[in-house]
Specification:
With about 180 residues, this protein is mainly α. The protein has five helices and three strands; from the N terminus they run αββααβαα. Strands 1-2-3 form a three-stranded antiparallel beta sheet, with no helix packed on it.
Length: about 180
Amino acid sequence: MNTKFKRCTLDLILFIALIIADRLTKMWATSRLMNNEPITLIKNVLELYYLPNGNTGAAFGILTGHRTLFLVIAVAVVAAIVYIIWNLPPDAKYRPLEILMVFIAAGGVGNMIDRIMQGYVVDFIYISCINFPIFNVADMYVSVCTVVLAIIMLFKFKEEDYSCLEKALKAPFQKIRTK
């Protein structure tokens, strides 16, 4: 079994585990929090609060009701992430990028499953001290990992790392052109 296949198999296992974790938390929130009082984890800071009628939009309620658009975007983003992961150079320095992208893809798919199954996303985590919008575990995967990915790309990678990435991601297209 080659290294790329092993690496991608581990990524797939992580991806599935992350989706299962997201699904389990949403199932718990629905069964425990729906039509019940919020659970205070840290007084005046953090609550578990089921958002009635679900979230049919994106962050901060933008694009509410555009379910098909969200599904198309999620499929396109996940397809792009799969392409990038498959074509990443095997160097260990790119492994954090790969793992972060698996988390982002799992978050996108976790919310996509909600949109397909229910027509809305189950949100239940509320940071009350700043009146932050209610969110879920999949949202955390996407938000936190996108920020960490940006930090790594901005402050850790050097110009030669970007050149290597560009070459690796263009290689499959160059093979098609030469045929």
